[in-house]
């Protein structure tokens, strides 16, 4: 094979890898905001919607509807999977006029929160709206959730007991 | 996923009324049932075919359909059913054009004939009182059903399908907002 052809191929590979990375980054970003919105609840999202332009109109594709999902676990993280129990989940999918679909799955029965989170997800997929929504809604919610998590972690850490004997026998 | 359309307006009640209509149609072969609240599925699916699909298909029923990517995406989103390439592997086959041969669909097994495939066949129109002569279980004397747009050679294929009883394929005919059913035990004579 000529050097030129192999160069050509390398370039195409690079191109493809870049596109894959790009897509993965976009997916990770979306995964993050979907998670933050799912934990926020209707009140949390609504409280921060005042400063941004209203969300585009949407139609409901599915739900909001509440059901149960089976949570599965593994003993020790690597044992045989077992059914831990069912949890209540509310989900919603909405579509904007331009065809963008937004999804939300959240724990609990917050139907209004599920619809708002799905509408937010759809709006956040539009690059023109994204920066304002991220700055006004998603980032403050993320900071708040991180703070709440830190408080819980601190409280839990204060009650931690170190079983030295067990740690050394492991 | 662009252009994804909503399913039933009221998922629980509308699916139940669609299920009831299919049940009535199956119990009274050749009687045309009107669906009260069908969804508005993407073309080329008719409202009746969409309603039957959403009422019957779920994650445990592989679906084969010939209606294109948009309709397939709609069915997968709302019914959650897996898609299959091969009609023989499907629990439901939905045909808007020329359907797969009845003999190529899953006829069930002698132990479990209820596992046979169901063909949802979209036709141009359905009318009672003229056309085919239907007789068999669920029919006291004779029902008449006119089917516009039935595929060529359907009656011969149907006779072969009926000869396999208790195995065989059931057919649900859909036109507009109406359904009629041909359970596998029905005998059809051309009118």
UniProtKB/TrEMBL annotation, chain B:
Record protein name field: Phosphonate C-P lyase system protein PhnH
Pfam family of the protein (one): PhnH
Keyword Lyase in record: yes
This protein's UniProt keywords: Lyase
Organism of derivation: Muricoccus vinaceus
Keyword Hydrolase (UniProt): no
Record GO terms (molecular function): lyase activity
